[in-house]
Amino acid sequence: MNHKFFSIAISSSIITLISGSYLDKSKNMNERVESIISRYFPHEDQSKALHCIMAKPNDDIRGCIKDKAIFRYKNPQFQNSPTMLDFLWVNRHETGFTPQKMSALILSGASPKDIATNVILESEPEYFAAFVEAAGGPNALNDLGWGDGSIMHAAVAYWDDAKINHLATLGANWEQKSPLAHETAVLVARRSGAGASEFERINRLLDLGANPRALDKWGTGLCDFIATGRSTWDDDGSQRAALKKRLKDEFLMEC
Length: 255
Fold this sequence. Notes:
This protein is mainly alpha-helical. Helix content is about 55%, strand content about 0%. It has 13 helices and no strands. Helix 5 (about 100-110) packs parallel to helix 7 (about 125-135) and helix 7 (about 125-135) packs parallel to helix 9. The longest helix is centred in the first third of the chain and has 38 residues, at about 5-40. The chain starts with a helix and ends with a helix.
C-alpha cells in the first residue's frame, strides 16, 4: 500500500470535513443575521443600508446611509427592538462590524447612547477606544441611559484597568460631577461596582490625581465612606484603615 498516498487522502478528508463544518457554521450565522434583519428592519431602505455597511470596507460606509432618520428607527411591533447601531454592535463578529465602522456610524449621526452601556461593560479594547473618541471623549454623554453620569463615571463604576488607563491618557476629568448625584470619580468609586474593590478603585484614582475632598449633592465624601460605609471586599477593615491613613498622610485629611 502506498502510505504516502494514504496519508494525503486522510489529510484531504480531514480538510474537507473541517471546511464543510466551517461552511455550515458560516451559513447558519448568515441565516441568523438575515432572519434578525428581516424581523426588525423590514423596510427596503433599512435592509439595503445594513447590507451595504456589512459589505463595504471600513472607510467607505458613510455612503450607505441616505437618511439619518434610519438611525433612530425601532420596529414598533417589538417592545425591545434594537436600533441599527445596536443590532450591528451585538452581532459585530457575524456582520464584520469593526471599530472603524462603529466610529464612522456614530460620526455620521447614530446615537452613541444606543450602545454605550454594552461597550463600556463588555467591549474589547479597540472597540472601547474607538467608541470614546467618536462619542466625544472620556467626559462626554453626561446623561447616559445606564444611570447618572458620563462615559468616565460608567467606566469607574464598571471598572477595567485598561479602560481606566486609556481614559487617563485621553485626559479624563475625574472631577466632572454627575448631573443628579453630583458625584466625581472617587465618589462613584466608593459605591459597590464590578471589576475591583471600592478601595482599589479609590486608590487608583487618587494616584491619577483625583480630588479626595470632593463632596456629592448631599455633602458626603470619602470620610463618610470610611466612617459608615460597608464593603464585601474588606471583611477585616484593613483596607478601610489603610485608606484612612493614606488620606491623613498624603492629603492631611482627618477622617
